Amino acid sequence: MTIKQISLFLENKYGRLSELLAILRDSDVQIVSATIADTSDYGLMRLITSDQQKTYKVLKEHGVLVSMNDVVAISLPPQASDFARVVELFTRRGVSIEYMYCFHYAQRLVLVMRCSDLDAVREVVRDNNLTFVTETDLIKM
Amino acid sequence: MKDGKYWEPEYETMPRAELTALQVERLRETVRRTMASPFYEPILRERGITPESIQSLDDLRRLPFTTKDDLRSHYPFGLCAVPLEKIVRVHSSSGTTGNPTVVCHTQEDLDAWANQVARCMYMVGLRDTDVIQNTSGYGMFTGGLGIQYGAERLGAMTVPAAAGNSKRQIKFITDFGTTALHAIPSYATRLAAVFHDEGLDPHRDTKLTTLIIGAEPHSEEQRRRIEELLGVKAYNCFGMSEMNGPGVAFECQEQNGLHIWEDYYIAEIVDPVTLEPVPDGEVGELVLTTLRREGMPLLRYRTRDLTRFLTGPCPCGRTHRRLDRFKGRSDDMLIVKGVNIFPVQVEKILMGFPELGSDYLITIETVGDNDEMTVEVELAAITDDYGSLQSLTKEITRQLKDEILLTPRVRLVAPGSLPKSEGKAVRVKDMRKNH
Question: What pTM does this model have?
Answer without folding.
Answer: 0.66
